[in-house]
């Protein structure tokens, strides 16, 4: 297995040289919130795979649903008026929980595609209204919006851009991330920091010209950029500013969607109304590759008029609204209802956040931050000055290795340690996760002495 993988498999988001040297970590089985590797070791999956397996790693109902749908209609497309019952029902179900209940749903296969679709729809919408100069998209430093060409170009993370984003473009412009711990000036409270973020955003819009800006895209909680939770009121003020300038607000809910922050969608937790949303991951609990873009009625009406003039809405993916992925996603949403997912997150979150914040006094931890069932610890060399470790020391990566030795899987985003467990986790498992993390931190501290 190990040699075969090294021979043929080029892994995503992996240092190829480390893979060549150390080989892959092969996972063979899942059980509840744990996964087991090829040596037989089991781990609590503290990241729900990649922020997605809300229902854990074994759900017989989802397996049965996929099996049944495979035997009913295993594959079909939705181009040219074709539809299938699971896709139809899934679109209805999504609208019933979304803040744009009279809107429309466009399906795809991943979060990146859902983001790309939002950007294309933003351009089509502005063009439909006779505002075709409105092409620029505001993204933010630290943002992660996927790995397609547009996703990378929207990304505020250098390693995602690499040489792989469109650099010589006049389209994507960047605002600051609302990252109080790292970006606040001396003595800036969360409130005064949020006010500065807003006036800087306003200045950016004035500089670029509102007549040139189509939309701003935001992750309600910025995930891969460091689990950044904005200060109170930030999004409400951003929304008001964008409305004043006739700029669309796009909420990338690929991580926050489906209960993670204590509401169905992150925009509801933070009190703003987006014009469009991208969803994926939790939509099928990661059991099938599926994504979707939800749009308001107003967007739909304008783009459908424009597409009608052009003769077709010339966008779509072969597997959009695929019957098997749709059936599994629909069943996932039914299970979320049955287990009262939102109530469950709100009640579990109390224990989760209490454990998380209990690390705030730890000598290596500069900040603990969390909301709902997503959180992070930020490692620092000096707690008082907030000085980070030199990146070459790879302290965050080392902690993840030590955590695996202790039987938990977490993810380091530089020296920020993300925690985003399955939403079916039990309180005792949350306690075990944090106790193992505490042991791994002690191991790290010993190594650093
Ligand atoms: N948007 C956000 C906020 C994400 O976190 C991700 C993936 O982590 C994506 C988009 C891309 O999703 P995918 O990997 O399914 O293309």
Automatic annotation (TrEMBL):
GO biological process: biotin biosynthetic process; gamma-aminobutyric acid metabolic process
Pfam families: Aminotran_3
UniProt-recorded Gene Ontology molecular function terms: adenosylmethionine-8-amino-7-oxononanoate transaminase activity; pyridoxal phosphate binding
Keywords: Aminotransferase, Pyridoxal phosphate, Transferase
Cofactors (names): pyridoxal 5'-phosphate
Similarity remark: Belongs to the class-III pyridoxal-phosphate-dependent aminotransferase family.
Full protein name: Aspartate aminotransferase family protein
Annotated organism of origin: Pelagibacterium lentulum
Native organism taxonomy: Bacteria, Pseudomonadati, Pseudomonadota, Alphaproteobacteria, Hyphomicrobiales
